[in-house]
Amino acid sequence: MILGSVKITHKIVYQLTLIPLFVALLLSTFSISADVLPCPEGSFYEIPSYDVTYDLIRKGKKVGSARRTLKPVKENHWQLSMNSKASVLVVSFEYKQQSAFTWVDNSPRPDSYLQKDKNSLKSAKAYKQNFNWQEMTETGSYKKKKWQLPLKAGIQDRQTSILSLRQDLLQQRSHETYKYPVSYKGKINDDVYVLIGEESQQTPAGTFNTLKFERTHKNAQRVSYFWLAKELDYLPVRIRQTKEGQEQADMLLSSIN
After folding, report:
1. How far apart are CA 20 and CA 135, in angstroms?
2. Which of 5, 93, 200, 220 is deepest in the core (most CB within 10 A)?
3. Cα dihedral across residues 157, 57, 69, 214: positive or negative
């Protein structure tokens, strides 16, 4: 297939269509808030709104950007949104996520989750989840698949899971390994983050003192690394994904608006 003056082989098409996956894995991993201090047990956080931007990097080149926002809907109810756009060769991509959650007993409790992605080679796809905590059931759909699952306390969606990690760090709950159950596509799996150590990390937004974490995915060949800035209340300033030791995608903090 030839688009313009660029010959697109089947291998290139396959690699290009993986970019939304890389973006999804990078951006769904962290949900952050700034300027929040630990609070006593039994009380709740007053979560401030925020607006941050990241550069999306692939093979050393900027291919797009992502914007993540957190805003209140009503008392103790919040909306976390992410919108990203990327372009490689003649192929463009858009990826969106939106989580609605309630802050209960010092932790996020997901109410709904929506994920959409599309590119110029494929039609748009949508993924939906709804969490009914009164009936203790989760319903969801993706393509032609639909499901209903029993809910258990502590279950998170793809975006809210990291808020639990961030809270543990803010409350100085020190562990080498942090584990949180996440519901996705009708299955419950644990997101496991292993603390590697401390590093100084340079980004377009500045240089920060960070804690570096590693997360191995279900496919053990794929590994993600995260740098959380201490001076930004553990805001992620860099997220990097590798496969078989080779860099697949990178995300760097570019601005805090």
Report:
1. 34
2. 93
3. positive
Tokens of 62: 């900027």
DSSP state at residue 156: B
Is there a contact between 100 and 78 (Cβ–Cβ < 8 Å)?
yes
Is the predicted pLDDT of residue 203 greater than 90, yes or no?
Answer: yes
Q: Which residues lie across from 22 on neighbouring strands?
A: none
What would the two tokens of residue 153 be? 């306390």
Closest CA to 126 of 146, 151, 155, 102: 146
What would the pLDDT profile of 144-195 be if each residue is shown by its tens digit? Answer: 899 999 999 999 998 888 778 887 888 787 788 888 899 998 899 998 899 9
Which one of 3.40.630, 2.40.160, 3.30.200, 2.40.360 gives the CATH number of domain 2-256?
Answer: 2.40.360
Please state whether the predicted TM-score (pTM) of the whole model is above 0.90. Answer: no
